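Sequence in, structure out. Go.
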Amino acid sequence: GPKNEEKKGIVWILLSRHYRNKSELLSTSKGGFLTLHVYDRRNGRLVLYPENAKKRGIYSNNPHVLCALNDIPPGKHKYTLVVSACEKKKQGLDYSLTVYSTIHCKPVSTIK
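Output:
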């Protein structure tokens, strides 16, 4: 293509679950299944119903979930990231989100 054409970007979002102790890490009990859904038409607004996602994750009890957004065209885009738990645990779940990208990205806000 032309030299001045901007390249499309790739964004990887890593959801990492935090364990409080070794027994929680080794536990085979139900609960603790997390996933990550990505919405592109929410304009950063709260998602109440899990429909029309750009990318729907698969629930897993693995400590890490990786979501890739490929071929993002140049320009400004707003994505809403939703961490979802399949079964709620009594003590809750701790996690962190890390974003890696070939293009400039910045967080806008956090909704709890």
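Check: The mean pLDDT is 81. The two ends are 43 Å apart (CA to CA).
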